[in-house]
UniProtKB/TrEMBL annotation, chain A:
GO terms for biological process: isoleucine biosynthetic process; L-serine catabolic process; L-threonine catabolic process; threonine biosynthetic process. It comes from Streptomyces atratus. InterPro entries: Ser/Thr_Dehydratase, Thr_synthase-like, TrpB-like_PALP, TrpB-like_PALP_sf. Its cofactor is pyridoxal 5'-phosphate. The keyword Lyase applies. It is an enzyme of class 4 (lyase). GO terms for molecular function: L-serine ammonia-lyase activity; threonine deaminase activity; threonine synthase activity. This is Threonine synthase.
Automatic annotation (TrEMBL), chain B:
This is Molybdopterin synthase sulfur carrier subunit. It comes from the Bacteria. InterPro entries: Beta-grasp_dom_sf, Mopterin_synth/thiamin_S_b, Sulfur_Carrier/Prot_Modifier, ThiS/MoaD-like. Gene3D superfamilies: 3.10.20.30. It holds the Pfam family ThiS. PANTHER family: SULFUR CARRIER PROTEIN CYSO (PTHR38031:SF1), SULFUR CARRIER PROTEIN SLR0821-RELATED (PTHR38031).
Amino acid sequence: MRRKGLAIMAAQTVAVSISSSVDAEAVDLGPASGLSCRECGERFELGPIFACASCFGPLEVAYDLPSGSPEELKKRIEAGPANIWRYAPLLPVPADVAEKPNLNPGWTKLVQADNLARELGVEQGKLFVKDDSGNPTHSFKDRVVAQAIEAARAFGFTTLSCSSTGNLAGAVGAAAARAGFRSCVFIPHDLEQGKVVMAAVYGGELVGIEGNYDDVNRFCSELIGDPLGEGWGFVNVNLRPYYGEGSKTLAYEICEQLGWRLPDQLVIPIASGSQFTKIDKGLQELIKLGLVEDKPYKLFGAQAEGCSPVSVAYKGGHDVVRPQKPNTIAKSLAIGNPADGPYVLDIARRTGGAVEDVNDEQVVDAIKLLARTEGIFAETAGGVTVGVTKKLIEAGLIDPSLTTVVLNTGDGLKTLDAVADTSQATATIRPSLDAFRAAGLATS
Amino acid sequence: MSVKVRIPTILRTYTGGQAEVPAEGSTLSQVIESLEQNHPGIAARVLDDQGKLRRFVNVYVNDDDVRFEGGLETATPDGAGISIIPAVAGGC
């Protein structure tokens, strides 16, 4: 579409592949003004690049944020659609984004979890679950893919791709189908059946890689530098700076749903750590724009013990994350070499939060706890956040008298295996009242 | 030991656009020295001021992440394939 061959960043030490030949002037991504390296601060023009040419650090979208009074901006947001596009002035998307074909994710429920609060010893009215299983493909990934789709349109890509632990593959497949892109996505070969079906059903190509997620990710990183991957938009590689911004909408929604207030404590799952850093970025933007009161908040990261490189680094007092080989039922969090791990450590420490992990048994217990108390069936990542919340309350690190929001990022239907063995019919009986009475199930 | 090194897009200005270049050395450290001799400036992109691998660079010798092996002292057998890859990819 707008690939006119003007090499971006010609003066900088960046190799020019076909995918980085973009007329930056013609790119309309709304308030996005450029990219900056999170590590060394070097600036780049908007383009399909993701790593700093000087230091390999991650690139982030920089903005010209809206001016004007906070009250006017609030009114504008509140008058917007009941999806993430109500926050379009704060995202790297064109102003008319809501009129383009996409899945329109977001504005999921913030559930006041009083029953769960009672079980965990949290003050009534203070505990909330942000339930992102309500998105179009039943995970938060729809939020980030929606941003990547707009970047892919702007940069003229026609094929969408990704490395995925499952949820993202489905989100890319669905979004590509709606928006008219070809898709070809890559997953570890041994994923849960629910996730494989949910990725394949949208008609794109789905490729199982013999290896774990980190192997898939490495493969995609090599593919992107090869003619075989020419013209492909990898949502979490060369479109990653834009894609990641979608997680900011979780922060925006939580604050708006709390009546434009910051929560005191947030519990967030950690896979690559991107979501954690973007939620922090979103909260900081709301403070800067005057949409919420400037007050302290604490961010807590949650990992599964079988893939806990960030938690181990946090508890060991390190600022470098040593990669692990994952072995956990929480496969959507099974990233052993988390790209944003060091930043999670920085933010957890800066805000006075923490990073903690729970074992697989605790994950299953937490999935069932959330289901029986609030009627929310979370995927394993939700079991991780609820389990870690419980652990941190017991450890005294989460204050039960303050407003706490726990993220559930996906639907339990995707990870049925985790609870299938312990969630069976109570009894199987003949269709007779005598049999029912004999089974001891009648109310007294 | 002769090895092949896969170069990420953002370093190909140092290799004249080549995606794969030959190098010599029996350890990763020696391979990077060899790369630097043939493609001056590339080592400073891969290593930090202390001479360690930058934290956002992943290096694989064949299929093994060198952080699980011996780091810069990881052995590089004759004919090995070495990949240098930005670490900031993936996930969310």
